[in-house]
Design a protein that fits this description.
Elements: H1 12-27, H2 33-54, H3 60-64, H4 68-86, H5 90-113, H6 140-150, H7 157-173, H8 177-181, E1 193-197, E2 203-207, H9 210-221, H10 245-259, H11 267-280, H12 285-292, H13 297-300, H14 302-318
Helix pairs in contact: 2-5, 4-5, 6-7, 6-10, 7-9, 7-11, 11-14
Length: 327
């Protein structure tokens, strides 16, 4: 199922600028389809707010003259809407507002560099600080059970094999879901490594375990007639198009219910599990950073906190003094 098209309430000059911005994001910044969709919807919502707030169709001249108060009014409106949808979940609201401001700053920087509009007011607006949360990986047994069950909840053999292959790739190579779904058929792993294009167009080489390679080869061997040619997406949806992330999320929810896993057990949790289990088995932090494609080591260092917390839990459960027993 494809995402709904994005519409923008914008005068012709602003509409042309938006198209140039989206092209720049896709071609020069190598933004993923997911990022393009998220940025586009954030900007669309902001322009709809301006049209209502100002009572006229937004144009470049309007953006040029916006005040800090108007940006803050939009953030307040967005926060109210978010609380209505999430029952007042503050953490979710903060993350949403932070992403909105990231989108708007990106767009206004583009306009400034292109000489289309200049508005220093946005620099005076601060979104709520989002506390840094720890990754929530699956346990090793939970990860294995997830991969085993993924193929048992689909009736069509090729779709069952697809889900097993995809989940095995996410867990076995630490890929982001967007990276995996962006792969094309000719990129299917045939050796011990494969090159992945990640955020910002950065490429990295990741090792491929035999079990990953075999799962993908098995899936490809079961594709229906017409789906086995060398071109096109690696992971296909039921209608022969590139697999949609929403379908993968839905499959993971089904597995989660059957295994009684927490809501944090998402496809991205398989990537967290890859990193955490490597670290637990003695993996080097710098190596894990390279395998995950993190630009900053500080991002990877979050996994040390996860492992420390796990060790503390084991200690509290096992140590006689921690459980109140005598030595």
């Amino acid at each position: 199922m494809s995402a709904l098209p994005i519409t923008y309430l914008a005068a012709p000059d602003l509409a042309a600028a938006i198209e140039a911005w989206r092209r720049w994001l896709a071609e020069e910044k190598r933004a993923s389809a997911h990022t393009l969709d998220a940025y586009g919807r954030d900007l669309s919502a902001f322009l709809a707010f301006l049209a209502d707030y100002r009572g006229e169709l937004p144009a470049l001249a309007m953006l040029d003259g916006l005040t800090p108060a108007e940006f803050r009014a939009y953030l307040a409106r967005r926060a109210q809407q978010q609380q209505g949808r999430s029952g007042g979940a503050r953490q979710l609201g903060k993350s949403s507002l932070a992403r909105v401001m990231s989108t708007l700053r990106n767009f206004f920087r583009f306009l400034d560099r292109a000489g289309l509009a200049h508005n220093p007011a946005i620099a005076a607006v601060r979104a709520p600080r989002v506390p840094r949360t720890l990754p929530r990986p699956l346990g090793q047994d939970e990860a294995r059970d997830t991969l085993a069950l993924a193929g048992d909840i689909q009736e069509q053999p090729w779709i069952a094999a697809r889900d097993v292959a995809l989940f095995t790739l996410l867990y076995g190579a630490g890929l982001r879901i967007g990276e995996a779904l962006a792969l094309n058929r000719y990129e299917a792993p045939k050796g011990d490594t494969m090159v992945i294009t990640g955020k910002g167009g950065r490429q990295r080489m990741v090792p491929i375990l035999p079990v990953v390679r075999e799962a993908i080869a098995h899936y490809l061997s079961l594709l229906p007639a017409g789906g086995q040619d060398g071109g096109g997406p690696l992971f296909l949806g039921a209608r022969g198009k590139r697999l949609n992330p929403g379908v993968v999320q839905r499959q993971m929810r089904a597995v989660r219910r059957l295994l009684d896993l927490p809501d944090s057990a998402t496809p991205h949790a398989l990537r967290h599990s890859f990193a955490t289990h490597l670290l637990a088995d003695g993996g080097d932090l710098r190596t894990i950073q390279e395998l995950l494609g993190h630009a900053s080591l500080s991002t990877t260092q979050r996994y040390t906190a996860v492992e420390t917390a796990r060790m503390a839990e084991i200690y509290r459960a096992a140590h006689p003094r921690a459980t109140g027993e005598a030595e």
